[in-house]
Design goal:
439 residues, alpha+beta, Outer membrane efflux proteins (OEP), four-stranded antiparallel sheet, two-stranded parallel sheet, 11 helices, 11% strand, MdtP/NodT-like, OMP_efflux, membrane, efflux transmembrane transporter activity, Heavy metal RND efflux outer membrane protein, CzcC family
Length: 439
Amino acid sequence: MHRRVRAAVRDGARARDRACVERRSYGLARSGCVMRSFGSIAAAICAVVCWLGASGVARALTLEEALARARERAPDLIASRAELAEARGEVTSAAVPLRTNPLIEAQGGPRYTTDGEWIVQLSVGIEQVFELSDARGARIDAARARVASAEAALADVARVLTAEVASRYLAALAARDRAALAESGLELLDTMREVAQRRVDAGDASIVDVRRIELARAAALSERDDARAELRREIGALRLLLGIPAADALDVEGDLASIAVAWRASTESGERADVVAARAREREARARVRVAEALAVPELVAGLAYQLEEHDHMGLLTLGFTLPVFDAGHGAREQAHARLDAARAELERRESTVAVQIATAREAYDAAVDALAASVESARSAGEVEVLVARAWDAGELPLGEVLLARREVVEARTLLVTRARDAASARMTLEAAAGGAR
């Protein structure tokens, strides 16, 4: 299917060149030059892209450059990277060998004996709590799983963000192409108005013809301004997504039809980032259950002490155990098991959702490419109609009403080509995002 679209694009380009030669041979050198950029849309919108690229002063971003900038500098990704750094800090905290710091105590003071003597009594001790359970290992596993989840979540944010950037970028390309179509139509109508005015002056036509052309020109002018306004809106949305200041010039470049058929099957391999994140959250939840269960295990309290009493020096070893009587972690275990159940349900939902999204996106993409191929053929036929109508108009063989009607049909066919190209390109980016990433 992609080869068929490319072949249609090449055939359309050849038809465009033949049309230009025919227009010149029938004395339409002036209007033929105007129609040349207009007729190129019938092939694959290529000449429009070149025309705008040559006339623009702003540096144009390609789709690849926009996606790369989104992955590097987008504000949403900066926040996700901060969350990843926080998760890595939890691993460092969990890896500490002992959960609590040692406790050092010192006691001292005089003691009054029954003999009326004052005796100095002093004691110094250190005490440490040791975990007898595998709570430390569980905390490390939970922290590492959280890091894996944060890394996958960062990748998923990039996946969703690049898909949104691609959508805005393609919308800007489509608006640019529609504006170029309308601009070419305005130039053509200006030429037609001059010809009609000369015919009116010669008494061969009515002033009504001039007014009808002016009416069609006003409609084309409105379409051009609407397309330019949409282009500015999409460029503004791109600025927000990419973090580009308003003072920096920004433009887009590229060919919608070429983007539409550039699907790469390599993006279909591997597990999607949101599924990886859900799986990591499920591992973290299982580790949190182990941490909660460890609360029911007693802890060992060991210590050393030195005591001075009168002239006696004593060394003491202390051992003790905590008794999880009042708080054995019942509530923590209930919460941990509930989070585990939720994480498992979320993982299952994600896996089934991804499968449906990929299948749906693939079907939509195939249908969009079919529609694009049909639209390319239609636009190529519109180019041939344009040549015949221009020939008949120049020879005075076709009434103005039929010329304007034919022109409207040609414009609609070429506008539909822009729409179909955008739909196919958007479907392709949706499929790539569903399969794992927007390039």
